[in-house]
Design goal:
By secondary structure, this protein is α+β, with helices and mostly antiparallel strands. It has one domain. A two-stranded antiparallel sheet has the order 1-2. The radius of gyration is 17 Å and the shape is globular.
């Protein structure tokens, strides 16, 4: 194997390991009672909502960005992190605008009558609300027909939320 090929192969391996680590961190989540929706995906070890990603960044930066430990706010039974004081203030003033709908659970799974934690790096903002998804397939299904999925999810959510954390 040539030196160039070994180097490319090791970079791919490093990228794959980094992606797996991020996915593992994002999916190490458990339900905990909280939020206006009834339930919120919260890391059971750290208490962080959406794995420490700044919920306001989805709207301002149009991409997920990790918040900083010195920019935290406790609300809804979880610790929320922010990139800056402006984002923290915006969330404190209007948490319902920035908090993920369905507590961060996958909207497609909710529409099907079950709860699956969403991943903070698989997301969409639709109708001024943030939605998280388990994987890209769920996100694609949502984006193909968001009105139908949201109608079904809104109908299913009260029952699904009652079953979370039992």
């Amino acid at each position: 194997m040539t030196a160039g090929r070994r180097q490319r192969k090791s970079r791919r391996a490093l990228k794959a390991l980094t992606a797996l680590a991020l996915c593992g961190f994002g999916f190490y989540l458990g339900g905990r009672e909280a939020s206006a929706d009834g339930r919120l995906v919260v890391d059971p070890v750290t208490g962080l909502a959406i794995s420490g990603v700044d919920p306001v960044a989805y709207f301002t930066d149009r991409k997920p960005q990790f918040g900083r430990p010195e920019m935290e706010l406790s609300r809804d039974g979880a610790v929320w992190r922010f990139r800056n004081e402006g984002n923290r203030s915006a969330f404190a003033d209007n948490p319902d605008v920035y908090r993920p709908r369905f507590g961060g659970y996958d909207a497609v799974a909710i529409a099907r009558g079950t709860s699956v934690p969403g991943h903070p790096f698989v997301w969409a903002v639709t109708g001024g609300r943030l939605y998280l998804f388990y994987d890209e397939a769920a996100r694609a299904a949502f984006l193909a027909d968001p009105d139908r999925i949201l109608a079904d999810a809104e109908m299913q959510w009260p029952e699904v939320a009652r079953g979370i954390g039992r």
